[in-house]
Amino acid sequence: MKILLISEFFPTGKDLKFSGGVEARTFYLAKYLARKHQICVITSRGLTSPKVEKMFNFTVYRVGPRRSYMATVGGLSKRIYFIKDAISFGTTLDIEVVDGSNFITHFIAKIIAKRKKIPSVAWYPDVWVGSWINNAGFWGIFGEILERLNLILGFDSYIAISKQTAQKLKGRIKGRIYTVPCGIDHKEFKTSLKKFPKPTIICVSRLAKYKNLRTLILAFAHLSTRLKEVRLIIVGTGPEYHNLKNLTKALKINSKVQFLFNLPRKELIRLIKSSHIFSLPSLVEGFGIATIEACCAGLPYVNSDIPAHREVTNNSKGGFMVDPREPLLFSKRFYELLTRKTLYNQKSKQAKQLAGIYSWQKVAKYTEEVYKSTVSRNL
């Protein structure tokens, strides 16, 4: 098949710097599908990235104005130009099916499909209808309008990242819904590495309000009064960076908290494997790919008790889930894992077992079946 994948952001070069799960899914899907199919990707232009790039036997086309490689809800004008240019270029490609991966690219995919009279697939990490402004602030107005429009326009098939997302889609759309989770490239995590000498908690997340990192920082501040050597690493970018940084200063823990971003893939994996515990305190989550990657590295986790985390972790296999509004509960579980070796080893073993369920090869296989079914229904 000739398949077009559209992702607003996409890595370049060999470093593979992902700013979020959407880009990771698109990259690994393209990588594995390209072994059997003709794959091309349309994405936005980075500050230094080439317009056309060959990667793992697929082709990446970058269109629109140059912009920072940071997945944020803002940047309205550049997004509008990206939409226009992506539609214009996409209609020139020889393709059989098109896949959009977020509220921006859903619209692009639908218009391209309509003009070329080919089927379209919408990949849904989550449904934010009615929650955009609460989750994203002022710029959420744009997201709310566009997502509602996308749902009205409709797609031939929908791929939901989780059963929770599939349930949200039901009743809003007419197309077929398939549930295909995210995956892991297990080879990336095979290398053995020593743990940091000091107990370290790591979080990989966008720095946005709905990710609730304030709770993690408050929990860490409390934990550091009990375990003096403990450290926290937060990997990610987003609008809450300065607020979170200032919070660590106000709590006088800034020397123990490290903020990192735009890391090469290998460096990110090294940090995860060298850490002791993973944590993701999100209020809203579609899947939480960083959690299963941490599990693959054998890290127990302490996550927020929300539907997506319960589903992905098979009801907290390999870690703990606590009330996202209760920093002291996070601190309690961190302390237990770091001071009770038997408990830590038990959860670490469970985490690795959980990670074994997920793989990008399976994701590519299931997604390929969705594409084939969608194309055959439209012949």
Automatic annotation (TrEMBL):
Residue ranges of every copy of the Glycosyl transferase family domain listed in the record: 188-353
CDD domains: GT4_PimA-like (cd03801)
Alphabetical list of Pfam families matching this protein: Glyco_transf_4, Glycos_transf_1
Keywords tagged on the record: Transferase
Keyword Transferase applies: yes
GO molecular function: glycosyltransferase activity
Domain Glycosyltransferase subfamily 4-like N-terminal per the UniProt entry, residue ranges: 20-187
Protein name according to UniProt: Glycosyl transferase group 1
Organism: Candidatus Curtissbacteria bacterium GW2011_GWC2_38_9
